[in-house]
Amino acid sequence: MERTTRQRTAIRAVFDAHARPLSPTELHELAKADVPTIGIATVYRTIKAMVDDGELQPVDVPGEPPRYERAELAHHHHFHCRGCDKVFDVHACPRDIEKLAPSGFRLEGHAVMLFGRCDGCRAA
Amino acid sequence: MERTTRQRTAIRAVFDAHARPLSPTELHELAKADVPTIGIATVYRTIKAMVDDGELQPVDVPGEPPRYERAELAHHHHFHCRGCDKVFDVHACPRDIEKLAPSGFRLEGHAVMLFGRCDGCRAA
DNA sequence: ATCTTTGCAAAACCTTTGCACTGCG
DNA sequence: CGCAGTGCAAAGGTTTTGCAAAGAT
Lengths: 124, 124
Fold this sequence. Notes:
By secondary structure, chain A is α+β, with helices and mostly antiparallel strands. Chain A is 27% helix and 23% strand.
């Protein structure tokens, strides 16, 4: 990640324009708007470099391709809509998490994934 | 899932013998002890059928192959040890989960994954 | 005997990698 | 210019699928 390229600028722009976790494929499609010739390999390589740099963090959705979001976001969790498959940020956190770990275990972190239907998909 | 076959019996036996979430590959290797000729495709097909039947449920560990466990287990969560990579069941649940979903969203389920070090790996 | 289930191999995916070319610094 | 970065295509790994043979009822 030593140089600024059109491809990397486009990828960062996509994250700025869409404030939600994005998959490599989504990222590729959206970045094509800026740089039509961008290859999927570049997207994967850039994602990996950005994760290694601590700029992005993976968001894992069970049974789905991984998504990525900016790491600078404060601690939060996610909501996965079963209707549109989109993942939304949830800026809240259960308060009694520390009590869940078995005694003797050292708890270092946690992830909460909510499932259901988003506002738009609730009717359908 | 209409017929009882040696392959399916072997797969169920593996789940009985190992009380922890198992990956398709683990399942395949372990089932070979009973039915050496069992193919990986059969393992995948059987897993899928058992999940559809509600007999198994997937346990997703970020960045790792999926694992499966019996669905009859009461609602619970998981602890992923960063030392030994094992996944443990956690029979506790945050109480204020319902309050986390954004308003307007319909919450249908949730998953909690804890990270840290298990009792045995805490020292190392 | 019928019709589901199996094993094999090929196909379908997703992600990574090799290599020559491009273009940032 | 030199070398990081790119695009393409091929390789790697995992999961799915087509089909003829096996086997459960």
